[in-house]
Amino acid sequence: MSEHSPPSSVEKSAINKISLRLVPFVGLMFFINFLDRTAISFAGPNGMSQDLGLTIAQFGLASGIFFIGYILLEVPSNLALHRFGARKWLARIMVSWGIVSLLFTWVSGIKELYILRILLGIAEAGFFPGAILYLSLWVPASYRSKILSLFYLAQPLTVVFGAPLAAVLIGQDGFLGLAGWRVMFLGVSIPAILVGLIAWFWLVDKPEQARWLNDDEKQWLVSELEREHATKQNSQHPSVLTVMFNGRVWMLSLIYFGFIYGLYALGFFLPTIIAGFQQQFQVTFDIFDKGLITAIPYLPAALALYLWSRDATRRGIRRWHIYIPAITGAVSIPLALFMESPFAIMVVITITACSIFSALPNFWTLPTQFLTGASAAAAVALINTIGNIAGFSAGYITGILHDLSGNYEVPMFAVGGFMLLSAVLMLMMKSYQKPADAPSIPIASQSLQEK
């Protein structure tokens, strides 16, 4: 579809079918993935730390140790997805992490907890970049912002619905003779295994294999995707090893680092805000109340994500679709510390959440604009790996800076600094000179406009 010609009826129906058939299901997989990964944050303060005798440091290590196997296996897992096909590989990943997550129901000590967290990271490795790559390669470049925004809605909605859901499960203390936090692990693990098994039959690797597309829709999709692929292949195409040292890919990795650092710092900071509300108003929130308060910024964030990405789809991706949210987030997150009322604080935090989630689906359209095949798989995995390093380090750096300074102003300004770096690097993409080993397709081509 060109920017000026209206889409044909075949084009519309093909994209609509993909939006209804694939995106909600992969989004459900992402919802369960994020809930399983963060279940420990609900379990810890609601009985697990006490039952296992965990110190704060041990709980922090158990939370962060997940990323060791996850980070190391991101790139190999995405290359395996390219080799074996997304249907088989994503289903395998989901069943694997569901089984490991289920074992948390019967964990009895700190050593077992550490081992299971490492295994969970290994099992989940490659799911998110694999899902991004899978959906990106199903539609032409002009539709990727729309498709990825629908997929990305699962992440803020995981907090909106996942936090109260975890609270309800924890409240079932005594079910099957299990403590509430163990019931929660049981309740979030079984869906992962079941949906993973369904994925084996539901997902389709290529448009030409989709029985739910008619012949005209298949022909249009295949011809459009082959045309884009041929355009990229006509240039010097980098190998997987070359991609790992490609300056453009690393610039995208640093941009993503800033956004994910802000995302995880937001998650780290929000419980502190809620605790401050309790002290200020002399009230006590139960686990369900805390879940609802935690969800407040994420519902507007889901709406902002959808509307911002819809505009990006209509106009074609502009650089400002990414750097304006980065600047807004950079200013708003430290500004929250200077608000004098709970309402004002939550408004500013909500602006931060809206900023981060508005940028992310548009950002993920960039790697597949100039890479394809195994090189695209490697690049997407590498970028996500750097982002997960930000997720691993955000809490620790925030804690260290707080201990050194005695307040949250310094660590929150650090968060703002990382997000501002993302904005600056995105602005630099216009004049960024491609390395000699990079493909000749400019990163600001097609859906990423210079305006």
Automatic annotation (TrEMBL):
Pfam families: MFS_1 (PF07690)
Transmembrane portions of the chain: 18-35, 55-73, 89-108, 114-138, 150-171, 183-204, 254-275, 287-308, 320-337, 343-364, 376-398, 410-429
Chain ranges of the Major facilitator superfamily (MFS) profile domain: 22-434
Broad class of where this protein is predominantly found: membrane
Membrane topology: Multi-pass membrane protein
UniProt keyword list: Membrane, Transmembrane, Transmembrane helix, Transport
Subcellular locations according to the entry: Membrane
Gene3D superfamilies: MFS general substrate transporter like domains
GO MF term set: transmembrane transporter activity
A GO CC term attached to the entry: membrane
Name under which the protein is recorded: Inner membrane transport protein RhmT
Organism of derivation: Budvicia aquatica
